[in-house]
Amino acid sequence: MLRHRFTDSLKAAMKAKDELTVSTLRLIIAKLKEQDIDARGKGKAGGIGEAEIQQMLLGMIKQRRDAIVLYEQGKRPELAEKERDEIAIIERFLPKQLGDAELEAAAKEVIAAIGASGMKDMGRAMAALKERYAGQMDGAKASQVVKRLLS
Q: For the whole model, what pTM was predicted?
């Protein structure tokens, strides 16, 4: 479904002559093709699935956020703004992100469901959280919340 949304959005952006959206979508599609080729090498003939596509998009957002920090340190606000605009375009294809309170509630729910009792269960808790809320949370934030709850 996301694959079709990418191509449909690319066509619409090309018709609207929206250069930033066109270039961002081309980057997404190129990254997706790269991931599909890697997946085929690992025995997945159909390429990567929806959850993996969402993870790829989250990774692309993280890269841009890192670049924003560097551009602002280098006194290049115009490039930082371009990265922010690309993030907004990429986020259109992701489900609504969990807020801080929602993330905490989700982490508590998962911890209770798997019976996690300490830091030794951190990996299991994170795996379950990522499985249930794929593409809806920032992994680093989720890790901090789970760690705090298990401590």
A: 0.75
CA dihedral 84, 88, 94, 98 (to 10 degrees): 70
The number of helix segments (H) and strand segments (E) in the chain equals: 7, 0
Per domain, the residue ranges of the chain are 2-91, 100-150
CA distance 30 to 132: 27
Instruction: Evaluate whether 2-91 and 100-150 have a shared fold.
Output: no
Burial of residue 103 (CB within 10 Å: 0-12, 13-18, 19+) is buried
Domain 100-150 is of which CATH architecture?
Orthogonal Bundle (1.10)
pLDDT tens per residue across span 92-112: 998 888 888 899 899 999 988
Ramachandran bin of 75, using left for φ above 0, alpha for ψ from -120 to 50, beta for the remaining angles:
left
The upper half-sphere exposure of residue 126, i.e. CA atoms within 13 Å in the direction of its Cβ, equals 18
